[in-house]
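User:
Hi there, any thoughts?
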Amino acid sequence: MAQKKYSHRKMKKMMREDEFASTIDKVINGIKPHKTIAVSGVVLLFVVVGIYVIATSYTHNRQDSSEKMMSKALEIYYYQPAKGETPKYETPRAQQEAALKEFEHVIDEKPTRSVAKRARFYMAADYIKLNQLDKAIETLSALFAESDYPFKALVGVKYAALLQNQNKLEDALKVYDQMADKDISQNTIKDYVLLQKGKLLKKMGKLDEAKAAFNILVEQFQNSRYEKEAQSQLDQMGS
């Protein structure tokens, strides 16, 4: 008989269920020798199982609902009319205003934490496109402070670039410093962060520090797509 194949998502679900079933077996085996508490133990166990099933179902449904709302908002954000198609929106600004409204709706519906953070990230991107830069900075600042890597690095890069464009160079440098201090296992775009940090330091006239950032990139990330650019920067600086 041919072996039945499962999708990666299905396999993960089965593994979680197997782990949970194993835990139940251990609890049942643990209460068997103690017959005086066996009945109450089994009753309690199935109460816990019931709560687990309800909670798991609720979480799964909530995640699906959140993702659907997020997909709708992203569809508007990235929309481009096909060749010969009449655009759905009168202007690019009208499109981004519509996208922003959808992202706000996602937040209002109390989505899962991961979806909420992604929605806020795109809200900040919309604020930038709509030239509401103070709102963008406020949103990215809060998101950067409360996020974990690797998502934190994506937020940080956008946040630092915005600060730099606003000529808030010292603030931008602090963001790059925080990200550059992390190991590659946490900050998976550390090579890009080092490149941008080096360029910013060069712009600020801090040449020795800029060279140090470029050198770390060249020495530690030899297979990086940014290694050649970092080396070019060093050559220009006479390193």
In short: Confidence is low (pLDDT under 50) at residues 1-6, 10-60. The chain is about 75% helix and 0% strand.
